[in-house]
Amino acid sequence: MKCESVQLEVVLLAYGELADDRIPELDEHLAGCEACRQELESLTAMQDTLAGFELAEPSPNLLAQARVKLDEALDAEPAPGLLARLRILVMGSLHHVKAAPALAALLVGVGFLGGSAISRYQAANAPKATPPVLMQHSADSTIANISSIVQTPDSKLVQVNYNRVVPETAQGTLDDPQIKQLLLMGAKNGISNDVRDSSVALLAEGCKAGHICDEDDQTKRGSSVRDTLLVSLRYDQDSKVRLNALHGLQRYLVTDQRVRDAVLESIMNDHDPDVRMQAINMLEPVQADSSVRQVLHTVSTTDDNPYIRNASMNALESVSQIQ
Which of 161, 186, 282, 316 is nearest to 238 (CA)? Predict the structure, then answer.
């Protein structure tokens, strides 16, 4: 083995990702190469040092931006050509069978003779049921974007078309984890306003109905429905998407300070009056909160839009009457 390739495998070994069949050959090289042993020891020492530091929790905004950049980078990668795929297939096969050439030749012969008959038998006896197409979690990074979302006449079914190497389709209910994951991706980086609007609208519908939110939202900070709706409310350029995000966040307004702050930011800064009016109307359950009253007072006295000023003033008056 050359030291250049060994140093790459040392990194995989340190992170526990090196294939088991590569370890004996790597150990043999390390036993006779001082430079490579030092490389492994340095990497192990660095890991031990880093393990002593507390990991910072990334913010939802950072995760959303990272996913967008990752998808853009994947889109920019050219698809491997036919020759490259054949080379990978051949080299992978040789790697696994190089230790047993006679057995490999026998297996290839048996496979060549029986493959056609087995394929015909499997095709004839394959089950005819057509279960929904499901996306594995490990394949998330290979999905380029969400191309379209359609709610079927059966309101419990959502059809999501998404692009990997070739277009594929997944169909299921809002409770399906794979459908939920695809909708989250569509809300963050759908290729059109319609895709993002449909994704956010369906996520909001599921939240209001209590299907896909609540307890599981706190298990993965940044990838939950609630965090996705917050990102859409703050940063999406389409006002329909922001309105749908508001509808989905309404159930969290009383219990989650982050949601309350995002709604108040919309009242102060959103450029669409419909979004601002909807946000003001949502504040009734929390109008007694001091930060809410302060924002309403500021808007009612300084905002350029007379309808927004009037709505804020009415909300303040209703607080005074309650008190």
Answer: 186
